[in-house]
Write a structure and sequence with these properties.
The complex is a heterodimer. By secondary structure, chain A is mainly β. Helix content of chain A is about 0%, strand content about 55%. Chain A contains no helices and eleven strands. In chain A, strands 2, 4, 5, 9, 10 and 11 form a six-stranded mixed beta sheet that branches. A five-stranded antiparallel beta sheet of chain A has the order 1-3-8-7-6, with no helix packed on it. Chain B is globular. Classes of the chains: A mainly beta, B mainly beta. Chains A and B meet through strand 4, strand 5, strand 9 and strand 10 of A and strand 5, strand 9 and strand 10 of B.
């Protein structure tokens, strides 16, 4: 069973614009993480938000978490061409053992 | 340099020919995991290991085996590969299970089963 589902599946914006992608999940979580994947490569961790947190910032990244709606959003401000990648949310299960990744949002930032 | 190393990076094989994909980490992490990535399906967890000699099934374990005899190594074994196991495979490690620990990923192994 897949926990996270990202929306939109694909997003194309101009450099300098903001990019927002959303993640919804099905059951209660302990933590939610966002990862980035450059084409065909390994995933790289971006940011983690715990279930008792509502918002977190890291550089140009802003993540929000709404546990009542079982959803999270990732905002990338002032996007750059180098931000072009796929972005995945990941949640863990109650025992902290299993991880569930969504199908990802493919972001294209045009120079 | 902290890293997760997978080998081989690319592999083409035929149905039924046993293969092993190796994974090694140099961060003394307790938790290791294997994922497969297919278009439109994201990453799905195959197996994970909480520590040496402790392994458990993820969401899609059928057709795969793993072992964890040493802390640093977590090989993925396909005893009799089939075409539906053609996929991009990732190994990952983290300090200790979920609990907010970041996963570090290898570069991936692209497997084609003919």
């Amino acid at each position: 069973s897949q926990q996270g589902e990202e929306d939109p599946q694909a997003l194309s914006i101009q450099e300098g614009e903001n990019a927002t992608m959303n993640c919804s999940y099905k059951t209660s979580i302990n933590n939610l993480q966002w990862y980035r994947q450059n084409s065909g490569r390994g995933l790289v961790h971006l940011i983690l938000i715990r279930s008792n947190e509502r918002e977190k910032h890291s550089g140009r990244l802003r993540v929000t978490l709404d546990t009542s709606k079982k959803s999270s959003s990732l905002l990338i401000t002032a996007s750059r061409a180098a931000d072009t990648a796929s972005y995945f949310c990941a949640t863990d299960d109650d025992n902290f053992n299993k991880f569930y990744f969504g199908s990802g949002t493919k972001l294209n930032v045009k120079p | 340099e902290a890293q997760v190393t997978q080998n081989p990076r690319y592999l083409i094989t035929v149905t039924g020919k046993k293969l092993t994909v190796t994974c090694s980490q140099n961060m003394n992490h307790e938790y290791m995991s294997w994922y497969r990535q297919d278009p439109g399906l994201g990453l799905r967890q195959i197996y994970y290991s909480m520590n040496v000699e402790v392994t458990d099934k993820g969401d899609v374990p059928e057709g795969y085996k793993v072992s964890r005899k040493e802390k640093r190594n977590f090989p993925l074994i396909l005893e009799s590969p089939s075409p539906n196991q053609t996929s991009l495979y990732f190994c990952a490690s983290s300090l200790s299970g979920g609990r907010g620990n970041i996963q570090y990923f290898g570069a991936g192994t692209r497997l084609s089963v003919l």
